[in-house]
Specification:
heterodimer; A: about 100 residues; mainly alpha; 2 strands; B: about 250 residues; 2 domains; 11 helices; about 70% helix; globular
């Protein structure tokens, strides 16, 4: 049940940000500093989510060669940088994870 | 004057090329929402109630990690704040339509719909064509349908895939694919790197508050670096010892 509350909350804030300026046209203005900050939201938030996914295993920092998610992630970063293609990045990352997982295990 | 039907179909057509990129993401969302432990009903409901790709991916991840509801909703708000800019940008072009239209069009406002809609609205007849809101509706509903169908397909496929395939990792890979190609200048690299470092140190904070700390660190550092860069371009003074004014 709590999960449904969270999802409705997410829906309300999303819809709210989409609707408010359309309805309140001319009565509100988005501050310049917020407009500047928005550009950095995707790299900051997404990287903040990626890093623990790669560096933590069972809530423990794990910077070792047996951490296959870290290795696969680093390879995916290089692939994303070189190809700029999401599907290739995801494909290479997953294959790397499976191959390394099979070797290291 | 274009009929409402023509505007609607033009909007749908303009959206088509973008669907090629959206449909796979919808499927990936569906697959990993299930892998992450959400029920099919919850995963599907998120696509229609939230209807925002990046927020759904992030929300799924945070639910799995056991983040608190307030943190999840607040993160969704920050991630979707850019929609307020889109909304302000399209507002002058749809100010003539009734409120129920505004509510509908606001619900359909996504990155992908905005991109084609604002292109249409800034054409020479874009602010005078009387049925232009139908173009917006055509583009928006096309994208909406694609997102619902592709996430439902992903949810269906996701039920058939065993957890040992580690498909939940596609989430981190998706984020990598979204972030890395957009790190085009020093300021955005600084934002990403500083957020990542902070995230590594603050990950064990309660309620995933570390995510907040890391995101805010990245945003502030990115803005500071950008400010330094733009000032050093604008004047000959050394960029280092200038006060921060805004």
């Amino acid at each position: 049940m709590n999960l449904w509350l969270i999802i409705f909350g997410m829906g309300i804030v999303t819809f709210g940000t989409r609707l408010t300026p359309i309805v309140l046209l001319g009565r509100i203005e988005i501050p310049l500093i917020v407009q500047r900050a928005l550009r950095f939201v995707p790299p900051a938030v997404l990287t903040a989510i990626i890093v623990p996914e790669l560096f933590y295993r069972n809530d423990q920092l794990d910077v070792s060669l047996t951490n296959v998610r870290l290795l696969a992630g680093l390879i995916a970063i290089v692939v994303a940088w070189r190809t700029k293609n999401a599907l290739i990045t995801i494909g290479v990352g997953m294959i790397t994870l499976w191959v390394l997982g099979a070797i290291i295990r | 004057m274009l009929s409402s039907r023509t505007e609607f179909l033009n909007g749908a057509k303009a959206e088509l090329p973008i669907l090629l990129g959206v449909a796979p993401f919808g499927m990936i969302y569906g697959v990993l929402a299930l892998q992450a432990g959400l029920s099919p009903a919850v995963a599907l409901a998120m696509s229609s109630i939230v209807f925002a790709g990046s927020a759904q991916f992030i929300g799924t991840q945070l639910i799995v990690q056991g983040a608190g509801g307030v943190v999840i909703v607040a993160t969704t708000f920050i991630v979707n704040l850019r929609h307020a800019l889109y909304s302000a940008s399209v507002a002058p072009f749809i100010k003539q339509v009734p409120l129920r239209w505004k509510v509908l069009l606001a619900y359909l406002l996504t990155d992908e719909a905005y991109a084609v809609v604002i292109t249409r609205f800034t054409q020479p007849d874009g602010s005078s064509a009387p049925n232009r809101h139908w173009f917006y509706f055509g583009a928006g509903i096309t994208l909406w349908s694609t997102w619902q169908i592709s996430s439902a397909l992903g949810i269906f496929v996701g039920q058939l895939i065993p957890a040992s395939w580690s498909l939940d990792f596609t989430l981190a890979l998706t984020f990598i694919a979204l972030v890395v190609p957009n790190l085009k200048d020093r300021a955005s690299v600084a934002a990403a790197v500083s957020a990542g470092i902070m995230a590594a140190f603050s990950y064990t904070w309660p309620y995933k508050l570390g995510l907040f700390a890391a995101a805010m660190t990245g945003i502030v550092i990115g803005m500071l670096v950008e400010q330094r860069q733009s000032r050093s371009q604008l004047s000959d003074l050394p960029a280092t010892d200038r006060p921060i004014t805004d």
